[in-house]
Design goal:
Length: 300
């Protein structure tokens, strides 16, 4: 059995501390992979011999492996977090990764479907490619109508639906809970789906608390949701780069365009920082400029 290095042992302890602080499963998984690569790169050397030049060398190593700027930036963030924790634990005096610049990423605003495009997808019947039309309609209504994340969507249980209050209990990042309101379209989709869900479970002789299930009666996965959304969106005329998060962006952007308060949108989206929500201001400003250029007589 190969003896574990000091770096590998420290990474295990760091990831354990993240779990104890209820960090998101996605963050822990990403950090775990990035830090395993870092541990393999530095090998058995001591902490005090790892400086900012070593960290830069690690980033160069990642570029040589063909990783893009986004992946390299994420790896650097993982190494920074590791050293920040080591400093708090008194293992190191300073964070060498803090001296290394983050790769400059192109500022790309995600392409958001228009209100008209979203209505075209949601109105009318589901296309033939929808294998479970009642459930698939509800997927779209919840993602666009409530602005929730894919992981939050698949985590909803039947007991989380508060029909009388027209709200859903959502468990977000770091196990933070919030209530998200829903409207008539979600209520109608729930009304169509729930009897079909119960019939399917009866036939499969299964019991599950999950709201959204597959055709075998198991809880729907985030990967399955991604496939379903893309397949139906394309069949309804949207671009092939549509994914569940696109509908969340559309929710925030369209709410803002219709005059919703930024703080209220922040609460509904479950953003910890208002600055995250303010990205939707950029999206809306871009839309406003396009409208101005296309319609104002003095803009042409």
């Amino acid at each position: 059995m190969t003896k574990r290095t000091a770096t590998e042992k420290a990474i295990d302890q760091f990831l354990r501390s993240l779990r104890e602080r209820n960090a998101s499963a996605h963050t822990i998984k990403a950090y775990s992979g990035d830090l395993d690569t870092f541990a393999a790169y530095v090998g058995p050397r001591s902490w005090h011999s790892i400086d900012h030049i070593t960290v830069r060398g690690f980033l160069s190593h990642l570029y040589e492996k063909g990783l893009g700027k986004t992946s390299v930036a994420r790896s650097l963030a993982a190494v920074r977090s590791l050293f920040r924790w080591l400093a708090q634990e008194g293992v190191v005096d300073q964070n060498p990764a803090a001296l290394v610049s983050t790769p400059k990423l192109p500022r790309k605003l995600p392409r958001v479907p228009t209100v008209e495009e979203m209505n075209a997808v949601l109105d009318g019947s589901m296309p033939e490619v929808a294998s479970f039309p009642e459930r698939d309609q509800l997927l779209f209504e919840l993602l666009y109508g409530c602005g929730i994340r894919n992981s939050e969507l698949t985590g909803i249980s039947l007991d989380d639906i508060r029909l009388s209050a027209e709200a859903i209990l959502i468990r977000g990042k770091g196990k933070k809970e919030r209530y998200v309101p829903f409207g008539d379209a979600v209520r109608a989709a729930l009304g169509a789906y729930l009897p079909v869900r119960q019939r399917l479970l009866n036939e499969a002789k299964k019991i599950t608390p999950a709201l959204l299930i597959n055709q075998r009666g198991g809880r729907l996965t985030t990967r399955s949701v991604g496939r379903i959304i893309k397949k139906i969106a394309v069949a309804k005329g949207l671009p092939s780069d549509v994914h569940p998060h696109t509908l969340r962006h559309a929710f925030g952007t369209h709410m803002l365009e219709e005059g919703a308060d930024l703080r209220a949108i922040q609460e509904m989206l479950g953003h910890e920082r208002l600055s995250t929500t303010q990205r939707y201001t950029q999206l809306s400003t871009k839309h406003v400029l396009q409208v101005y250029d296309q319609t104002h007589p003095r803009a042409k």
